[in-house]
Amino acid sequence: MSGSGEPAAEAPAATGAGVRIVVEYCKPCGFESAYLELENAVKEEFPDVEIESRLGGTGAFEIEINGQLIFSKLENGGFPYEKDLIEAIRKAGNGEPLEKITKSRPPCVIL
């Protein structure tokens, strides 16, 4: 409870310390810009998070947090909403269980 004199448990979540993100994406598909946008948004919110990119197969934009797949464009058909990813990182920083992100932004369609 308050007044226990112990440090707040939420400190790691504020910076993202101890959270590792791997984003696997399809570079020939043009998804590098989506990765860079995501990387900038994550680093702005969580400066100490470790984020790594890997080249993936056709249509891939897969996101792992601490080794757990939490988003798959191959399954969802679009890109994750930034707020959902930020919330997942916050949970990981607090040691809470992660849930897979199932909502996604529809991919751009040019008619």
UniProtKB/TrEMBL annotation:
It is found in: Cell membrane; Cytoplasm, Cytosol. Keywords: Acetylation, Apoptosis, Cell membrane, Cytoplasm, Disulfide bond, Lipoprotein, Membrane, Prenylation, Redox-active center. It comes from the Eukaryota. Pfam families: Rdx. GO terms for biological process: apoptotic process; negative regulation of apoptotic process; positive regulation of filopodium assembly. Its main location: membrane. One of its GO terms (cellular component) is plasma membrane. InterPro entries: Selenoprotein_Rdx-typ, SelW_related, Thioredoxin-like_sf. It is a lipid-anchor. Increases cell migration by inducing filopodia formation at the leading edge of migrating cells. Plays a role in regulation of apoptosis, possibly through control of CASP3. May be involved in a redox-related process. Interacts with GPX1. PANTHER family: MIGRATION AND INVASION ENHANCER 1, SELENOPROTEIN W. Belongs to the SelWTH family. This is Migration and invasion enhancer 1. It comes from Podarcis lilfordi (Lilford's wall lizard). The lineage of its organism: Eukaryota, Metazoa, Chordata, Craniata, Vertebrata.
